[in-house]
Design goal:
Elements: H1 9-14, H2 22-36, H3 51-60, E1 65-68, H4 75-81, E2 89-93, H5 108-117, E3 123-127, E4 132-136, H6 143-146, E5 148-150, H7 152-158, E6 168-170, H8 172-175, E7 179-184, H9 191-195, H10 198-201, E8 205-208, E9 211-214, E10 219-225, H11 227-233, H12 238-243, E11 246-249, H13 256-266, H14 271-276, E12 277-278, H15 281-294, H16 309-328, E13 334-335, H17 345-348, H18 356-361, H19 363-382, H20 399-406, E14 411-414, H21 419-426, H22 430-438, H23 445-458, E15 463-466, E16 470-474, H24 476-481, H25 484-494
Parallel strand pairs: 1-10, 1-11, 4-7, 7-10, 12-13
Antiparallel strand pairs: 2-3, 5-6, 8-9, 14-16, 15-16
Length: 495
């Protein structure tokens, strides 16, 4: 039976409609989903054994919830996904300011309508999406914004004293009655504003300008907080923490696979870009390693965290860089190169907070350090480490490549060169292509050939110089021993 066709309280009663509190509704719908094996919190990865069991337990226990974690750990996304555990529609009294249950009106206005109309009380139906309210906590948020204030114009018009509940202009929290109310970055709320939440969470009383009103609000509260804010910029006052039933710690993706799934899901790539640009798995993995390396870097403030948005936007920038190069040469399609990773610099700036040592190095140097370290990790994931051939017990497959540069040869890979120019430059080292082909790796060989060169450079076996236009690979000793005076002479010759 389609209950949304019912229009009066009497029809609801005849249909045996059962009214539930929002926390009971969430609990019962979660139990049903678990029994039926339906997926819950879709699009959330790597939380299956950590965060999600705790979150489900909090819902079953009918607790208010605090999600505590660094930025970019899907705290707000989890809160928004809880909407799916609400009923598709619920009835509310027609004509009231708040979405009141026709079986249990809480305001004088709602009670008067039900008393006068009885079973003919008109009802409206509210969708689950309308029952979600989210507020970002900022220092300028006031009690009036969250709870409400006395409306003097309403009091004068209705000729009522300020102590009458009918003169209240309701804030966001009362308007979230029978729904979910999310406060993001809770520590940023001033302590006096947090105090105003005490009674709402426990006793269901609200105080406005010295007048106490009993308002039995039915709300599922979800708070989010960043531990950095919690310890530095603000605090969650102890009595408020005591009233929040469950505190759940979130975390960053712990595996490369989970991190890739998140990036693939969240990256916004235009369909034309997808058709024009091929992203090899080996480079997609390297992008995720950049984020993982950043979360371990001594140059980056780990208390601030490195958001998952870093790898998402880096992926988008790298695809866009490859597309731009493709269009410059009027090519129908192209494959992302490791050179394109340098185009992710705009995605790094602003996503990380540097410590003192990092500030001394500079953001660009730190970013290049992350890029190269990620390339090294990906190189070692597919090729044997050059270290194992140093004793000479086995023939070194990298020796012909290193000897090519030791002979004084250089390789210049232009960041904006065409695919034909890029491939021609890599083919200058026959041993490089032979090495890659011997491992029978998937995808185009040129990507792997470039990875080998970056890997050897990161292992200090060949030299590498990065500029805005190209990456030059050369003899490591010649690169190290080159004097500043030589560089100045070169510049003079170029002039």
């Amino acid at each position: 039976m389609d209950l949304t066709r019912l229009r009066t309280l009497g029809q609801l009663k005849a249909a045996n409609y059962r009214s539930r509190s929002v926390k009971t509704e969430l609990r019962e719908n979660l139990l049903t989903a678990l029994r039926e094996g339906r997926p819950i919190f879709r699009g959330i990865y790597d939380y299956e054994d950590t965060v999600l069991p705790q979150l489900r337990a909090a819902i079953l226990a009918r607790h208010d919830i605090l999600l505590l974690g660094l930025r970019g750990q899907a705290k707000t996304r989890l809160a928004r996904l809880m909407v799916e555990l609400l009923d598709p529609y619920i009835p509310a009294i027609e004509g009231t300011e708040l979405p009141e249950d026709p079986f249990h009106p809480i305001t004088a206005e709602g009670q008067l309508i039900v008393t006068e109309a009885g079973d003919d009380t008109p009802i409206r139906w509210i969708s689950r999406e309308e029952r979600y309210i989210e507020k970002l906590a900022t220092p300028d948020v006031s009690v009036a914004d969250l709870i409400g204030d006395i409306d003097p114009i309403k009091a004068a018009t209705l000729k009522l004293p300020y102590s009458d509940p009918r003169v209240i202009h309701y804030g966001l929290i009362p308007r979230a009655h029978r729904g979910l109310f999310v406060i993001n970055e809770l520590p940023d709320l001033q302590p006096r504003i947090q105090v105003a939440l005490f009674n709402i969470l426990q006793e269901k009383d609200i105080q406005i300008r010295g007048y106490s009103f009993r308002l039995p609000l039915d709300i599922q509260f979800i708070f989010t907080a960043n531990p950095e804010d919690y310890t530095q910029r603000g605090t969650i006052i102890t009595p408020l923490k005591d009233r929040i039933g469950s505190q759940i710690l979130t975390h960053y993706p712990r595996t490369l696979e989970a991190s890739r799934r998140i990036t693939q899901q969240e990256a916004r790539i235009h369909p034309e870009t997808k058709a024009r640009v091929i992203m090899p798995d080996v480079i997609a993995n390297t992008i995720e390693r950049i984020g993982m390396m950043a979360r371990q870097s001594e140059y980056i403030d780990q208390k601030s965290g490195v958001s998952a948005r870093l790898t998402i936007t880096a992926y988008e920038c790298i695809m866009a860089s490859a597309e731009q190069r493709c269009l410059l040469h009027n090519e129908s399609h192209t494959t992302v190169r490791f050179l394109d990773i340098y185009g992710a610099l705009p995605a790094i700036i602003g996503k990380i907070e540097l410590v003192y040592e990092g500030e001394k190095e500079g953001i660009q140097t730190v970013a290049l350090h992350l890029f190269h370290k990620a390339m090294r990790e990906e190189f070692l994931a597919h090729f044997p480490s050059p270290e194992k051939f140093r004793r000479g017990s086995q023939p070194n497959p990298y020796r012909p490549i290193i000897d090519y540069f030791n002979a004084g040869n250089t390789l210049s890979l232009g960041r904006w060169s065409s695919d034909a120019e890029y491939q021609q430059e890599l083919r200058k080292i026959p041993a490089l292509q032979s090495l890659v082909e011997s491992y029978k790796l998937p995808g185009p060989p040129y990507v792997w050939m470039e990875l080998v060169l970056h890997g050897l450079a990161d292992m200090s076996l060949i030299g590498r110089t990065v500029s805005d236009r190209e990456v030059s690979l050369k003899d490591i000793l010649g690169d190290v021993l080159k004097r500043p005076s030589d560089e100045e002479e070169d510049e003079e010759e170029e002039d």
